[in-house]
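sorry to bug you again but im stuck and you know this stuff better than me. what follows is a protein written twice so to speak, once as letters and once as structure tokens for the fold. mainly i need to know what kind of three dimensional shape the backbone takes. anything you notice is useful, everything is just below:
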Amino acid sequence: MKIWVDADACPNVIKDILFRAAERKQLELILVANHFLVTPPSRVIRAVQVPGGFDVADNYIVRQLQKNDLVITADIPLAAEVIAKNAHALNPRGELYTKDNIKDRLAMRDLMDELRSAGQLSGGPSPLGPRDRQDFANALDRFLAKY
């Protein structure tokens, strides 16, 4: 199993948790972004820089992904593609996307996009807080304990 990170928007505190987990479990961790990323020296951690453009990093991850890999992303359409490939998706707030919940998450995302487009809603998700970081770390530990 490999861990893939949609790293363009992944908070640094989440990357730090992932770095520690990858080293502890000796799991390959690949961060994919359209900009240069600094990673700690490690034989299991690496970064891949892809060209800029809409969904280029997402498409790279989907092409490379294998069954049962884990993808860290807040991008719900990417999570849906990951699940369709029989892999796993976890968001930076600790929510594991599954076949049972991804359709509801996509529908909610689409509704929020429509409301923002119509000017009825502004802003995005709240900033990542200490509770979110802890929820992510706990969810990641639970997931990795199974593998």
